[in-house]
Structure formats: C-alpha cells, structure tokens
Design a protein that fits this description.
CATH architecture: Alpha-Beta Barrel
Number of domains: 1
Number of strands: 8
Helix content: 25-40%
Shape: globular
Strand content: 5-15%
Largest sheet: 8 strands, parallel
C-alpha cells in the first residue's frame, strides 16, 4: 500500500493546478499506484476565510472517502476558528489539520497557535505544517511568503508535547534539531519525504539513520508537484522492506487512526 500524506484539491490563486479535482487526482493516483491520500484545500491557502475551502473539500470528496482522508485548514488568527475546528471534526470527518502560519500571518509560537495545537492533540488530530507552498523561484510578485523556520517548529513541538506534527514540503532537517540523532530531536515530529534529497547529499538516508523509519512518511505534494520524484526516492532508498512499508503507509495509518488489513 502507498499512502500520500501531502496532497491537495481545489484552486491556488497564483497558478493553475492540474489533477485538482477528486476524479482527476484519483486517476493520477491509480496511474502511479497510490492507494490513499490525505488531502486539504489548496484554495484555503489564499482564502480570507479558510472554512470555505474546508466546505468545498468536504463536498468534493464525499463519494470517495475510501481513498481520501480530509485535513482541515484552520487559521487560529481568524475569529471563530474553534467552531471551524468542531465542524471539520464532527461534520466533515477531518482526520488532521493543516496550518499555514506564514500565509495566514500569525506566529507559529503565537498563543493562539499553541491553543490550536493543544486542541488538536485533545481531539486526536495530527497537525500538518507545510514548510513552504511553492519554490521561491515560482512565487508571484504579489505574495513573497517566506518558509516556516525549522527552529520555530522545534520550539512548537516542545511546547505542545501531546500533539503530533507532520512536516511537509521541507528540507534541511539534518542541520536542525528536528533531524539530529538523540534526545534533541522532538519525538512528536514526523517528516514527509517529497523535498528530501535521496542521492547526492541523501538527506532521506541520513534521517532514516538518525530518526528511524518510524518518523518518516511518504508524500508527493500533488498537484503542486509531480508524484514521480517521491516514488523514485523510495525505490533508491537503501532500506529494508519493513522500513519502506512503515514510510509508505504504516506510519500514516497510525497518525490518522486508520483501520487497515494490509
């Protein structure tokens, strides 16, 4: 089985996306052998009220809940986020959250963000944080949004030990507290592989050695990215079949509390 923890549906304000409908993404997943995907609203990244994106996502995947696991985009700086969280959890069946502190203009260590992370932990929801949405070279002149600092995420993880964080679209973890071997690395952070090098510097292999297979998860970033590079990285990864199985789907199934026989 292959479980993609980093996929999106909907529109992005600054770029046309392909395969961004449920049917379109399913066709791509079938072509590449991807069984399930955790999806969030790409539209909610730039919507002023992110809940509209969550509503669109819930309607889009309603007939495909066997393949898609919904993640709710929540903005703790927006009034009424507690109601948004409750609705996404109870009515839309969200299995996790996705946060965009730089796009939504709040600090990751802001008390409101800490409150949201702790609320997610109490509800059993994992918290996915994209380090970036697009490469800086692709960004619109209207939105020069910086990457989320890895040092801030490490502090957030320590401040909210009961929460579980999935870090997607990131690289450079080896040089931070998040990727070091030993007790310095927060045990509640899981790293998605789509931007990790697998050959030259081989950050993927280094993280596997430092953190173990139980802390890595498979993701592609579709439809912002093509899925093939992530699949090739797993092919060339020097790891046992059991370790690859953890990365491909077992860790994700545990993070999202999924029942599976495979």
């Amino acid at each position: 089985m292959i479980f993609d923890v980093n996929a999106y549906l909907g529109h992005f304000a600054f770029r046309r996306l392909r395969h961004n409908t449920a049917d379109g993404l399913l066709r791509l997943m079938d072509e590449k052998g991807i069984d399930k995907a955790a999806v969030s609203s790409a539209s909610a990244i730039t919507y002023r009220n992110v809940q509209a994106g969550n509503e669109e996502l819930a309607a889009e995947i309603r007939r495909h809940r066997d393949r898609f696991v919904p993640l709710a985009v929540i903005n703790p700086a927006y009034a009424g986020w507690q109601d948004d969280l409750r609705i996404c959890r109870e009515e839309f069946g969200a299995a996790g959250l996705r946060l965009y502190p730089k796009w939504h203009n709040y600090g990751i260590l802001d008390p409101r963000c800490l409150e949201l992370a702790n609320a997610a932990a109490e509800s059993g929801l994992s918290v996915s944080i994209p380090i970036r949405v697009e490469d800086r070279r692709q960004r619109s002149w209207l939105a020069d949004v910086p990457d989320v600092p890895l040092s801030d995420i490490a502090e957030l993880a320590k401040a909210c030990p009961g929460a579980r964080f999935i870090l997607v679209n990131g690289a450079g973890f080896i040089g931070s507290a998040l990727g070091r071997r030993g007790r310095d690395a927060p045990a509640n952070c899981f790293i998605e592989i789509s931007r990790l090098s697998a050959v030259l510097r081989n950050e993927l292999g280094g993280l596997l050695k430092n953190l173990g297979a139980g802390r890595l998860v498979f993701g592609t970033g579709v439809p912002f990215n093509y899925p093939d590079p992530a699949l090739v990285k797993m092919e060339v990864l020097d790891a046992s079949p059991a370790a690859k199985e953890k990365i491909f789907w077992r860790n994700a199934a545990e993070l999202f509390h999924l029942q599976t026989r495979r």
